[in-house]
Design goal:
The complex is a heterodimer. A nine-stranded mixed sheet of chain A has the order 11-10-9-12-8-1-6-7-13, sandwiched between helices. In chain A, strands 2-5 form a two-stranded antiparallel sheet. The longest helix of chain A has 17 residues. By secondary structure, chain A is an alpha/beta fold. Chain B has a seven-stranded parallel sheet with strand order 11-15-10-5-8-9-16, with helices on both faces. Chain B has a five-stranded parallel sheet with strand order 19-18-20-21-22. The longest helix of chain B is centred in the N-terminal third of the chain and has 17 residues. Chain B is built from ten helices and 22 strands. The radius of gyration of chain B is 24 Å and the shape is globular. The N and C termini of chain B lie far apart (64 Å). In chain B, strand 6 and strand 7 form a beta hairpin. By secondary structure, chain B is of the alpha/beta class. Classes of the chains: A alpha/beta, B alpha/beta. Strand 11 of chain A pairs antiparallel with strand 17 of chain B. Bound molecules: flavin-adenine dinucleotide and adenosine monophosphate (AMP). Flavin-adenine dinucleotide binds next to helix 8, helix 9, strand 21 and helix 10 of chain B.
Chain lengths: 260, 400
């Protein structure tokens, strides 16, 4: 099986803090990590490879330093990493990001399954996965919590919904986006870390992926950010004190008007 | 193309440095310098500069659309499950009416499914001037491909200027695909929607970086302008049986209805009637609950209050609660009217999933627990004493 996993480098959430004086984001010295949901995507890819044979290619679009997440994925068992990095990609919204990734995937050529995380922890859009499958015109299943099996060139999966889940069979090649329940990502092995150090990371620029210039980066992005601001801080809370029944009485009074 | 500092205008005031979400600007020799390896051309610094010293050149849209003016009306995708229109649709209809009023246009709902008679009527009573209906066996349940084909086709035919959709598991999958097909902008998970009074553009405000910053986004050159919105962000409209509306039926056949992937089964797991994202009240438990058996206590409180039960990741990882109840960065994001956190410490990964709740009640025996920083009402105490007392009180009060 040829599996492609799309991963994104994001700032570690715990490190994104607000400077109380200026009310702005502190990014100094913030560590970058693999987007948490993409860890599950990598793990699932590696598990499928271990079961069916084949190859896992991880791919990321980002600045040159995003190479680090590809190496980390190799340490978890991925075979190859491709970095899409070019100033021409800067300013991409989800339309242009999914276009660029799909152009790179076309260039890779043969694949059976593309795995994405459910969403990225910085943008939180959950739009890039379905975007890639739309560009490639292949079937998609989002929010996959389990791959029940792969047989006769089709994947039978469980898709999480608000009320429970759906069982869906998708013919390959297809794209899935995965949630946390699907697996527990392994820690990189010592051997894996050695491999990661030596792994060759391919770097592609815009001209390498046969993409149309006006579909890339800022030019290819229908949306524009016009303003960024810090949300109003939550009002200072009120502490309720006393014995349990007393507290219950107070809280009930405070919440009464909110409950139908 | 690109971003540029106009050296003569730059005073080195650091306003841009503070605004940059990507830490890409430094002051060197009293002038701002942009690190192009970090800059994503997001544009946040441009309006932040009081001296107009930052120039962001946006290249012309590939095909500048001359026909933007042909696009009229505000559409709401009326998501239904098992023939029931979802509550988020009625929330969106209310907002759509406001937007349409500022634009001087009308509101339409798009409904795909089977046996829809009552739901069509309800959509009109709840604020739709028009309801576009596709009633067919093949679209009874959501499937990515036929739904994408049909919605994209209807948009091409009727040209709405705005399309709103719930940020649900169906909505997000469907609309992302439609946006690519039509090459239009899409903003996820908006918490604010307004019309720019001058340019008449849809201003879409949404949280990013786990709610640490807010961004306002526009899509000036493409139509429709599309946005998804979470449950509970806007209030539901009330049903007005005097309202009248038009029903427009559309028929589709053949390849338009085909789906390569097959929906084999739908399994409902949430026994109680309230699901997490739709709940007005959520009672949530963490590691402080001590074990799975104690979640019964939370279920009782939830029952007394008409609430759903949520959980921290620690309780899910311990196997006390199913993953579908997990709130937070790697679980669900919720914004109920009331969120009651019981024995949850309030680590940032949990907070990002619930801090937009209107009222947060925290019960924790550790007065220094970070959850108290976001709590509207804080209770320092033992969950095993407080929760039963609350259950008793709310039972009396609400008679449940
Ligand atoms: C990449 C990543 C993603 C993550 N995603 C999520 C996510 O989606 N959701 C999530 O919740 N977490 C997530 N986490 C985990 C998160 O960092 C915390 O570990 C987790 O939220 C802690 O859960 P908790 O508050 O239940 O447990 P703890 O932190 O152990 O807190 C238990 C609390 O209960 C209190 N307590 C104990 N006994 C009592 C009692 N009898 N009465 C009252 N209070 C009591 C204690 O004082 C303590 O504050 C993520 C972490 C990472 C690294
Ligand atoms: N720049 C990127 N490079 C590679 N994969 C990405 C990128 N951005 C998003 N993805 C993939 O798309 C998923 C959803 O991201 P998002 O739509 O940004 O929430 C992520 O979990 C990744 O699998």
């Amino acid at each position: 099986m040829n599996i492609i996993v799309c991963i994104k480098q994001v700032p570690e959430t715990t490190e994104v803090r607000i400077n109380p004086e200026t009310n702005t984001l502190i990014r100094e010295g913030v560590k970058s990590i693999i987007n948490p949901f993409d860890m599950y995507a990598i793990e699932e890819g590696v598990r499928l490879k271990e079961k069916f044979g084949g190859k896992v290619t991880v791919i990321t679009m980002g600045p040159p330093q995003a190479e680090a997440v590809l190496r980390e994925a190799v340490s978890m068992g991925a075979d190859e990493g491709i970095l899409l990095s070019d100033r021409a990609f800067a300013g991409s919204d989800t339309w242009a990001t999914s276009y660029t990734l799909s152009a790179a995937i076309r260039k890779i050529g043969v694949f059976d399954l593309i795995i994405c995380g459910k969403q990225a922890s910085d943008g939180d859009t959950a739009q890039v996965g379905p975007g890639i499958s739309a560009h490639l015109d292949i079937p998609q299943v989002t929010y996959v919590k389990k791959i029940e099996g792969i047989k006769d060139n089709a994947a039978k999966v469980e898709r999480m919904t608000e009320e429970g889940f759906e069982i869906i069979e998708a013919p390959l090649p297809a794209l899935i986006t995965v949630v946390k329940e699907i697996n527990t990502p392994r820690l990189p092995s010592l051997k894996g870390m050695m491999r990661a150090k030596q792994a060759k990371i391919t770097c592609w620029k815009a001209q390498d992926i046969d993409a149309e210039a006006d579909s890339l980066g800022l030019a290819g992005s229908p949306t524009q950010v016009v303003k960024i601001f810090t949300p109003p801080a939550r009002e200072c809370g009120q502490m309720l004190e006393g014995e349990a029944p007393e507290i219950a009485e107070k809280l009930a009074g405070l919440l009464r008007s909110e409950i139908n | 193309m690109g971003i540029q500092i106009i050296i003569e205008k730059c005073t080195g005031c650091t306003l841009c440095v503070q605004t940059c979400p990507f830490d890409a600007i430094r002051i060197i020799d009293k002038k701002a310098v942009i690190d192009l390896n970090k800059c994503t051309l997001c544009g946040a610094c441009v309006p932040a500069c009081k001296f107009k010293a930052i120039l962001l050149e946006k290249p012309q849209a590939a095909a500048p659309k001359a026909d933007l003016k042909d696009y009229k009306g505000v559409w709401v995708f009326a998501e239904q499950k098992k023939g029931k229109v979802q509550s988020v649709v009625y929330e969106l209809l209310g907002k759509a009416r406001e937007l349409a009023a500022s634009l001087g246009t009308d509101v339409s709902a798009v409904l795909l499914g089977e046996h829809l008679e009552e739901e069509i009527q309800e959509l009109i009573w709840r604020g739709a001037d028009n309801v576009y209906v596709v009633e067919k066996r093949e679209v009874a349940n959501f499937q990515d491909e036929p739904y994408t084909n049909i919605l994209a086709e209807l948009i091409k035919k009727y040209k709405p200027e705005i399309l709103l959709c719930g940020a649900t598991s169906i909505g997000r999958s469907l609309i992302s695909r439609v946006a690519i097909r039509l090459k239009v902008g899409l903003t996820a998970d908006c918490t604010g929607l307004d019309i720019d009074p001058e340019k008449k553009l849809l201003l879409q405000t949404r949280p990013a970086f786990g709610g640490n910053i807010m961004a306002t986004i526009i899509s000036p050159d493409y139509r429709p302008q599309m946005a998804t919105v979470r449950h509970k962000v806007f209030p539901e409209t009330v049903s007005d049986m005097k309202r009248k509306g038009k029903i427009i039926r559309e028929d589709f056949n053949g390849p338009m209805l085909e789906s390569r992937s097959k929906l084999l089964d739908i399994i409902d797991e949430i026994e109680s009637t309230v699901n997490l994202s739709e709940a007005d009240i959520i009672v949530s438990g963490g590691r402080g609950m001590g074990g799975p058996e104690n979640f019964k206590m939370l279920e009782e409180l939830a029952k007394a209050m008409g609430a759903a039960v949520g959980s921290s990741r620690a309780a899910v990882d311990a196997g006390w609660m199913p993953y579908s109840h997990q709130v937070g960065q790697t679980g669900r994001t919720v914004s109920p009217k009331i969120y009651i956190a019981c024995g949850i410490s309030g680590q940032i990964q949990h907070l990002v999933g619930m801090q937009s709740s209107k009222i947060i009640v925290a019960i924790n025996k550790d007065p220094d627990a970070p959850i108290f920083k976001v709590a509207t009402y804080g209770i320092v105490g033992d969950v095993f004493q407080i929760v039963p007392a609350l259950t008793k009180k709310f039972k009396e009060l609400l008679n449940k």
